[in-house]
Fold each of these.
Amino acid sequence: MNRKYRKTVIAGNWKMNQLASTIKPFMEELKANLPKNKTCDIVLCTPAVMVPAMIKAGKDCKVAAGAQDVSKYEKGAYTGEVSADQLADIGAKYCIVGHSERRQYHGEDDMLVNAKAKALLAKGITPIICVGESLEQREMDLTMEYVAYQVKAALSGIDAAQLRHCIIAYEPIWAIGTGKTATAEQAQEVCEGIRAVIRKIYGARPARAVSILYGGSMNAKNAAELLAQPDIDGGLIGGASLKPVDFATIVAATAQEA
Ligand code: PEP
């Protein structure tokens, strides 16, 4: 973390879990366990349909609501899609794009991720842009090359002013939902590399200001070590974000000196 130059963000990704009706008790337990002093921004990304319930329940403990996907289209005959305008209208402040599960199960490619990020920025929603390599790519020593390509593609046509409203999440695919966490050194190395890619495109100042999160089996036990790395500005957390005490512990881990 580096609080001097950028925000620390702890974002949960609930995926297709929980119900609007279970948010209230979840938030009560979360609130009871959150530290008193705020040392990071807290976000919970739910299915779009649950965003209003999250906003209502999250007010008390200053948890912002986010969605997990958005249409690249502005409006019209796209049955089943949810537009950035519609997300903004119900109060979503963040939205994940390019999660590896969407890339894997819904065929999302880098062009689509870029279009979705732009659609969100146009409506004032912060895209949390996910990138990350597969195990095969890591074993072939292609990690940085591949992640650099993903970052460049996702940010194509996004100017420096818009970059200030973007968050990048480095999520090695092999670490998501597997219980296998990247070591703090592995995660730092790639997050530092991502910042270098951004520096090359936008210059030193914008690169210094971008929050880069790590995601992939981050939990209450390993969060502090990961968050102690200079280029890891927070976490995108799946499984552990469904457990209020664990999620609160991860939030508390941002209180360490950075
Ligand atoms: C995720 O879904 O973005 C994620 C990192 O999941 P988990 O923390 O469960 O690995």
Amino acid sequence: MTDKETHLANLEQIQKDALAALADVADADALEAWRVAHLGRSSAVMGVFSSMGTLDKELRPLMGKTANEVRQALEGALEEKRQLMEADALKQALETEKLDVTLPGRPVTRGRLHPLTQVLRRIIQIFGDMGFQVYPSPEVETDDYNFTYLNMPPYHPARDMWDTFYTKQEGVLLRTHTSPGQIRVMRARAPEPIRVILPGATMRYEQLSARSEIEFAQVEVLVVGERVSFAELKGTLDDFARRLFGEEARTRLRPSHFPFTEPSAEFDVGCFVCEGEGCPVCKETGWLEILGCGMVHPVVLEYGGYDPAVYSGFAAGMGIDRSTLMRYRIDDIRHFRNNDVRFLRQF
Ligand code: DAH
């Protein structure tokens, strides 16, 4: 054998031995040990490189090239082995850590709109269709807006009907109705015509019971312009009731009194529980009271900045809690603000 042949055979043997050893490698530690042994600084292939200087000059290029090929072959084999072992490990993990994809997932609990919000949105939509805007107004009000400008000067006995919570600040209180918003929108818009609804929270100093809460929601209706008539009030409310309660809903106006309207009326719809027969829900009358209304009192128009000789208007105010109670046959008004999901889930 020539020198050259001996050297080539040696390299071939190095490769063979290394690959044979690799075949026995079974885990990551062994693989690392194999790398150090067969590709590390003191490995056989690397030895060939460092002893290159002892070779005949004309042998060196061939030997260098061949040694390189051996090293690349071993590196390739190492990489292949590593991937093989990773795939094996994954396969094993998939088999041992079984995931039962047929198990039903845990459902995400979905929120829903509060029943009062649902009714309020419906009311806003109905009035929106009739050309009304929503006008926001404050829940903390002054005595003047809540009473005086609504034609209830200090010591007016009607104030007792709207007893409220007073703040430590003189003349500042929690509004008992959305009616003070009438003055706010009039003062902002005068002398332009007005066609708005004012929804919002209202508060009253009341004994808590199944029928009354200290907080409840109202929607105020206000139309102001030239030649606004009682007929327009009746038409608007009838239209509203039919859209909210159904085409066949019966309605009636009953004379009443409010300091801020003249004349004043209550607006009733036929009881949708007994359909007029008389039942506990309608207190045997066959009618459900929905709202108070009337033609805006001249004093109120004046406080709002409208000349009552030129302008007229109608107003209405409805509590949406009671209507919602009736609509869903809820037995206690306090459910609305307890935030018990067992209650809320039902709507
Ligand atoms: N503000 C009255 C209340 O809370 C309801 C009301 C009656 C509002 C007649 C009005 C109205 O605008 O015209 O009892």
